[in-house]
Amino acid sequence: MLINGDDLKNQKTIKASVCILGGGVAGLTLAKELKESFSDIVLLESGSNEYTQQAQNLYKANSVSPYYPDTSVSRLRFLGGASNHWANNTSPFTPIDFEMREWIDNSGWPITFDDISPYYKKAAQYCGTGDDGYLNDYWFKLLNQKDSFSSQANIETMIAKAALPPTRFFYAYGEELAGSHNVTIYKNSNVVDIDYSSSTAKITKVYFENYNGIRHSVEADYFVVCFGGIENARMMLLFNEKYNNKLGNKFDNVGRYFMDHPMVSPVHVHTGGDKTLQNFSSVVESKAIVSFYSLTEKALKNFKTTNIRLPLGPASEYELSDGISSFHILNQSFAKGKLPDDFGSHLSNFVMDMDMVIEAISRKSFDTPLFESANDFDGFNSRIMLEQAPHRDNQIKLGNTKDSFGIPRVDIKWELKAIDRERLWRSLEVFSLAVGEADLGRVRLLKERSDRLFGDQMGFGHHHMGTTRMWVDESKGVVDGNQKVFGTNNLYIAGSSVFTTGSHVPPTLTIVAMTIRLAEHIKGLRS
Amino acid sequence: MNRRRFLAFSTSAITLLPLSSFINTYNKVDQSFLEDELQHLLTQWNIREKDTPEVYLADKNISVNSDVKLLKQQRVQDFKYGNVFILNGLVLSKTEAALLACTVT
Predict the structure, then answer these.
(1) For the whole model, what pTM was predicted?
(2) Given B2, B11, B72, which is nearest A353 (Cβ)?
(3) Is A161:A289 a contact under the CB 8 Å cutoff?
(4) How far apart are CA A29 and CA A518, in angstroms?
(5) Residue B70: which pLDDT band, with cuts at 50, 70 and 90?
(6) What's the structural domain count of chain B?
(7) A207 forms bridges with which residues in the sheet?
(8) What digits encode the pLDDT tens for the residues A94-121?
């Protein structure tokens, strides 16, 4: 059933076996996985079937760190959540992602890759990317592609898959769920409070309000928080304010270790016209199959670094121009009355690449290209997604302004630490060595552009991870290996907020796999 | 010639041809620019390395007239063992950097 919370008139107390808080990817997957096993499942969603501004306004933050994007734009608050605008880019995590790596503080999940891997096939089906897996040997053979690094120890080619068109989870599964006699989805229903019993360590009730201000409640055996990576932290912080940090926050971990996937373009690859290194992209049965480069597990351990997702795309002389970038950097610095770092390099780039600087000015000011050679293939660039380490002081906190339901808006404190940047350059040097060893070209690391690379030119995957992380105990975690909140017996969290570390690939496939695993666990509790 | 041409040049031409003939390959080479870039490389080499490029190459029995196959093998070995020289962010094999530096007269 799909019920509009705004239509509920009198205060109601709804009884259920499982109450799912949030109707995004995790919440909808969980409902679908549990519906054959539980007689009454309730799902509460703040938004509606479609986008509404009144729901979206609830995502506005109180404050956001410089260069971090506006999360009222990157998130979507209606049924299906961020799957309503994602690119459906999926890749599984790798075994090392779950391991404790002594060179990365706070790494080491309390579960292993083997605990999650059995669920990846089904997760891929949920995401619409099929059950034919992500093994590069299989795809290279099928698509008659050559692996440039097949004999390399430090770089490997990995596979990403995307459904075409992207799978919108409520569009794909909403009708089935709404048509189920034992699943009730309440839309326009905002969770605002909970009741927790210290004697039983159980959540006894969750309160929600519609946009008419009428409050209702749900009593259930199990509650699962599925609001999303930032919102999970926000609501758990709110609940912990009421219950004196008894809900997984004894050691002040809720909201901390906040990670995203920064995306930067720090490298040019010059190949003298050779296109061997170009990553492939094919369409197979309504799926896009795309390759990208990453470091091998061996390289990550040997060089003590973090991984990168490095897809190489062909670039023209214009796109690889050093002069244009340096021109902007020089301009920006002079406007502030100072010289930039690496002034000599920028001046040299500007002078040595003057024709492309002129081309840029001509294109921008007069919409007129000048040099034919500007569009000639000159090598490769890359929009790299990098793995960010979990830093305790990157965090979500409750701010001092409130939304229309009286819930404090979030303060988002995030930065790309010096060690993350250092590891990026280290990983790129590893890549440079591999390219040279394979005799496929030469790599230029654009370090002199660091201020812009990690400033106004930095993009994001908008993958909000780590804020209610998994750990062996509550000293550094909020949930255990079964995603149960420490200090409770019936409260669970699903989604990327439980990730201990973030890997270098988009999280959705792993979110779905872990949610399927969580569903199996909850089914087991019932028996 | 500009920076991009130098990069294309140094990554493909000199790594494929005997060094003694690489300058003649590209008719459009601006000799003065190329000399500036090579001088910069030599300056950086002298700052960072204890041996001159000639001594470095002599230790490996490599010269500007060495066989292309030998140069290529040495280059691959350089990258395999992390024996590189980074100039303005460009990651070069140390052998090819030394060879380029030797061309400065």
Answers:
(1) 0.92
(2) B2
(3) yes
(4) 10
(5) confident
(6) 1
(7) A193, A217
(8) 999 999 999 999 999 999 999 999 999 9
